[in-house]
Design brief:
CATH superfamily of the largest domain in chain A: Response regulator
Number of strands of chain A: 14
Strand content of chain A: 15-25%
Distance between the termini of chain A: 48 Å
Oligomer: homodimer
Largest sheet of chain A: 7 strands, mixed
Helix content of chain A: 25-40%
CATH class of the largest domain in chain A: Alpha Beta
Chain lengths: ~375, ~375
DNA sequence: GGTTCAATCTACATCGTTGTATATCGGCTG
DNA sequence: CAGCCGATATACAACGATGTAGATTGAACC
């Protein structure tokens, strides 16, 4: 019943050539008589032959696939990041396999060490549970590019963003608008690493440079950076009775949640409270009101990550310094800070890129 | 420099057993002396052996991977769908490879016929460019599950939603709230198939059952169902001067865009205009105001699609009727229709599921 | 006219597993 | 005690492609 797969063997037989010649035709090897090529192509067509990618992968030791490990696609930032990375990979002839780690430590380790290690040529990894102490786990013997702000000293290439500087710029911008009681949503108490810690640090620097005091009462905690947690953190801040005239949500999802919570209490944005997010996802360009946000250069992050990985794959085994790349980011002003009256969005601050840095300790990736 | 991959051969040698025994240990074959098993495990541990998935795939003719083809992940509905499908697949021990078609005809055909055909065990395909005329292209010789509303007579299992009934219910609900000038955003002029046509049909039926006339001036067109196109369509409707007291956006992304456009014109939702979307994505639960929407049963769609595909894969070659599954959907009422004052969301209408239907023309999938 | 070389094609081994058939051993059955 | 069976382990071929080395042309070269 089930038609057995057509192989090169069958094609070779029908075309009256060797199986290797079929392979050569399929792979575009140039030195083939036009007549032969035609016979082979006819046979392929007639038999409906399709190359077996798995067999080729085994023989060539390449799969032309890469893995992208992110927490979850239902978080808009990661969905958009995945979109960009898939496109960038496609341009390089690569297919992307997505692993959702759910920000679970176990799953993140599994991605690094698990079964599928031999299935793709490399890994772009955006950790959320692992931290600096886990650097050892990243010493895998295959091409790896790390994203994000949790692990900086990994033996791997690293694409990140200018968190501190951008957060500082956000805070300064809010201060420049005359806001004095700038709250934060999404802090992680006691944490020393990761986006939360860095952006909070930028916030403190921004306050300081604006001559504003740091008030712990203005710092709202939120574990996972979802819309819902942002709304909860915002609600708690408001309920605490602390005076607030601006909110810096450490990512856009929380900014949307915060906006929701503000609206529920009939607090006007931006008249009563100004609001800024981080990530510049599509949502904040259409929310009501639109939300000012930090564009961390998502496209560039994606393209760079793929490019670095492709390089590592090509040079597998060749030692070369690990690189840290930090694309330029910028603040896009929108209604939530009164920077534009409606729609649009305009750059109100550009944050210098960190450029490309080569790290001494050059091991083999 | 580069460590050559450790194979079963190396493990076998170190453990002093045959390579097949190593394979048996790795695969959990029961009849192995504990002592032997331990020696093998020690060797695996010591050498850092990892199974080569590609080789196994070749030998077993299975990859335990499935392909999911969607237009793009930056559309929230598809991001959430992908999330759900990846989780459902994981529960079945499958990994998901995502292909973005960008709603391009060419890419959609490529996904069906392309190189990677032999790389995964099956395909879950959500077409946006192909239509009923392309049914022939779907006669592929491998497990396939089709999603969506564009192709109904494909020789494949099909998971869809109750578009007409749900859209009718939405319209009736708006009418029941006293709205008389119900506009639509996202129609596709002249199109006979697909979500747009079906939902528009439901809209017409809803109007009719409510005794309201159908007014073409109230129908706004939008090609791609993005936030931006929804905003444009809404703006055009408003600029046309037509009277409107409710808007049915044919998906949530457009509803968010429409809300944005309404807000830009200082039109209050829901006081001046009520708004309903479709898909029940996360965004509409946190927008300002929150938006009433149709929950098409995304989780169930995902689980069903994976389950059907798994069944086809297991029974490859066995003929069995093609099935069409239509999960139940429901309208979740929120602020944009005044159904709740804030937050939350409550079911205001349940739409009967279409159940499972078996289609006569049973070919082999 | 022998040599050289590019073009064209083929044979064979190989990538790292798993399926199949088979060998060996000891114990249990009747 | 012959016969049988389950437990344990192995040898060998096979999955479907590609890399390597080499065979066979015919034209070009000196």
């Amino acid at each position: 019943m089930k038609a057995v797969a057509v192989t090169m063997h069958d094609v070779a037989q029908r075309a009256g050539v060797s199986i290797k010649t079929v392979s050569n035709v399929v792979n575009g090897y140039p030195h083939i008589r036009p007549e032969t090529r035609q016979r082979v192509e006819e046979a392929i067509e007639h038999l409906g032959y399709r190359l077996n990618t798995t067999a080729r992968n085994l023989r060539t030791r390449r799969t032309d696939m890469i893995t992208l490990a992110v927490p979850e696609l239902s978080l808009p930032y990661f969905a958009e990041l995945a979109d960009s990375i898939i496109r960038a990979a496609e341009d390089e002839g690569l297919t992307v396999l997505i692993e959702q780690t759910s920000a679970s430590r176990e799953r993140e380790i599994e991605v690094l060490t698990g079964l599928r290690r031999h299935l793709t040529d490399g890994l772009i990894f955006s950790p959320l549970a692992l931290g600096p102490h886990d650097v050892g786990l990243l010493s895998v013997d295959r091409p790896l590019v790390v994203l994000g702000e949790r692990i900086f000293d990994a033996p791997a290439d690293h694409v990140t963003m200018n968190n501190v500087a951008a957060a500082k710029a956000v805070t300064q911008h809010l201060a420049a608008l005359g806001r004095r009681r700038i709250a934060v949503v999404g802090a992680h108490e006691g944490e020393q690493v990761g986006s939360a810690a860095l952006r909070l640090e930028g916030y403190r620097q921004g306050l300081e440079s604006a001559g504003l005091p740091f008030d712990p009462a203005l710092v709202g905690e939120a574990g996972l950076w979802h819309r819902s947690t942002g709304a909860e953190a915002m609600a708690q801040l408001l309920d605490s009775g602390v005076e607030v005239d601006a909110v810096f949500a450490l990512n856009d999802a929380m900014a949307l949640g915060a906006l929701h919570a503000l609206h529920a209490r009939r607090i006007d944005v931006p008249d009563d409270v100004a609001l800024v997010g981080f990530d510049d996802i599509d949502d904040v360009k259409f929310s009501v009101p639109t939300i000012t946000s930090v564009d961390p250069g998502r496209e560039e992050i994606a393209r760079t990550a793929v490019a670095l990985l492709v390089e590592r794959i090509a040079e597998a085994g060749v030692p070369r310094p690990f690189r840290r790349v930090v694309p330029a980011s910028r603040i896009v002003g929108r209604e939530s800070t009164g920077d534009v009256l409606e729609g649009g969005g305009q750059v109100v601050a550009a944050v210098q890129p960190g450029g490309v840095e080569e790290i001494e300790d050059a091991r083999t990736a």
